[in-house]
Design goal:
The protein has seven helices and six strands; from the N terminus they run H-E-H-E-E-H-E-H-H-E-H-E-H. It is an alpha/beta fold. The chain has a single domain, classed as Rossmann fold, CATH 3.40.50. It is globular and about 45 Å long.
């Protein structure tokens, strides 16, 4: 009963171009399986994972959104209320890396977080297993430099197919999401406390005639 009472729902949005492996990463993390047959996501879908982070029980709700341009207009309804945004690209396809700026900007525009400068993002470079790494076109150094330019966001390199670094990446994502959820609670209670103080001051300073 206590575990249910103390459980936190953490909403995570995974963004990136079609074909970078968003669905595969989620399925590998939650279900420990990899499907070799590619099937594009239509609109959006989500999976959940129960976690125990420190003394906190959390349900990680991971939203997989379509990477195709024609589905972008569906995004705003799914971005709202997110606790963390995961940007993903294929290390073997330059185009998917170059579009990260657009995904980053679109999320901030659609989600409209309270403090956009500090909202938690995580970057994942997927498919490091392809051709033993010989097909890679985006160097790790370049990806890390991009992360620095966006406020030192965490970076993970993964292979959904080989289950390389997938658990570590999502654990880091969960930590970021939980930290953001706590920060939003602090902002909410601080603002509420200030509002209550103002009401008390107005009441005490009002005319009793």
């Amino acid at each position: 009963m206590d575990s249910i009472k103390n459980r936190t729902l953490l909403k995570v949005i995974v963004l990136g171009d079609s074909g970078v492996g968003k669905t595969s990463l989620m399925n590998q993390y939650v279900y420990k399986r990899f499907n070799r047959q590619y099937k594009a996501t239509i609109g959006a879908d989500f999976v959940t994972k129960e976690l125990h982070i420190g003394e906190k029980f959390a349900t990680l709700q991971i939203w997989d959104t379509a990477g195709q341009e024609r589905f972008h207009s569906l995004g705003s309804a799914f971005y709202r209320g997110a606790d963390c945004c995961v940007l993903s690209y294929d290390v073997n396809t330059l185009r998917t890396f170059e579009s990260l700026n657009n995904w980053h900007e679109e999320f901030l525009k659609q989600a409209n977080p309270i403090e956009p400068e500090t909202f938690p993002f995580v970057l994942i470079g997927n498919k490091i297993d392809v051709d033993g790494g010989n097909s890679r076109v985006v160097a790790e150094k370049r990806a890390r430099e991009w992360c620095v330019s966006k406020g030192n966001i965490p970076y993970y390199e993964t292979s959904a197919k080989e289950n390389t670094n997938v658990d570590d990446a999502f654990l880091g994502i969960a930590d970021r999401a939980l930290a953001n959820e706590r920060q939003q609670d602090n902002i909410y209670f601080r603002d509420m406390s200030e509002s209550v103080s103002e009401m008390i001051e107005q009441r005490n300073g009002g005319c009793a005639c």
